Amino acid sequence: MGDLTYDLIIIGGGPAGLTAAIYGGRAKLRTLVINKGAVGGLVNTTREIVNYPGYAQISGPDLMKDFKKHADCFGVEFSRDEVVSVNFFQEDKIICTKKGKEYTAKAVIIACGSEPRLLNIPGEKRLRGSGVAYCATCDAEYFKGEDVVVVGSGDQAIEEGMYITKFARKVTVIVLHDEGVLDCNKVSAERAFQNEKMEFVWNSTVEEVLGEANVEGVKIKNLKTGRSSELASQGVFFFVGMIPMTNFLKASGIRMDRSGYIPVNVLMETDLEGIYAVGDNRVKYLRQVVSAAGDGAAAAVAAERYIEELNAFRTSVLKSDKKVLLLFFNALNNGCLEFSTLLEQVNQELSEPYKVVKIETATKKNLAQKYDVKIVPSVVVLDRGQEIKRLDYSMDKEKLKAQLR
Questions:
Q1: pTM for the complete prediction?
Q2: Is 172:237 a contact under the CB 8 Å cutoff?
Q3: What is the pLDDT of residues 264-310, one digit of tens each?
Q4: Does residue 137 sit within a domain?
């Protein structure tokens, strides 16, 4: 089966995951990308990209091929497989796949992305990328002077629809509700009603996307009369929601919002140590190739530094010839800081000083859990990596010294 142990594993091969892979490989980390579909993700459905720096015009698949080639240059490995379960509650993370493989990694970057909520009507999947679209910022400019249909009436649908009017000749919004009723906020609704390029078809739904090689129109059903009609158009934008592909993480312990998106900090760190989230599966403002790439770069650099710290701990602490005092503390706690100073003073007065290693529990949750530290300050005494005792907390210098002799 081969060696399934890696420094960095990236779940997902879209622009965020591929960028993280490039940075990981360049940092000489043994890096693996696990992707259940074609490398590139949703970008592969975009006919043309004109807003990625350095590329005046390129197709989504071609841009992703360039990303993949770049990652290959740095020795990144790829596996076409699906992650079905994970165990992140330890230093060596475990990732299990549909093909029965069990990988381990020091750090993991989640880049599994999101996917549009589909209506699954005839023609929708077949014409995706050939007139069927899900992102106005990505694709609106390709419909200059054409007629476009927007499906949905929430904030995203109406606001994106108004953006499309900058390019299209006409935008027709298909709405489930009675005339004048939209699901979006009132300000957007008022602006949309005043937009001369926007029209509305009420009490209706789209039954089918029409066309052979490209979109030629839609079949619409009136929900009150039951009658169907056809409306000519060259594009159909579906805005009925996005779904983050994070179902496999439900039992992982990672904090997610109600929709399944993962909150992170500026380093792309989740609330679990050594686990990062990037791209469309995280809580974010802009979902574009360029912002996804930025996420991937930030996460990979943060993961590299985390792995360096982890390796340093294993070398300088677990393999140390000297006995080690692991001081677990909270930097915001004055009592911890005072105890830390006292411990350093006492240690320097010993004939054979220990090596003192300070562990900030707020950022080193895995180590705190590994050594079952529940209160701070706490001191664990190690001899060649093995725990031999724990010190009783005391601000009395002599009592503390006596425990160390």
A1: 0.76
A2: no
A3: 999 999 999 999 999 999 999 888 899 999 999 999 999 999 999 89
A4: yes
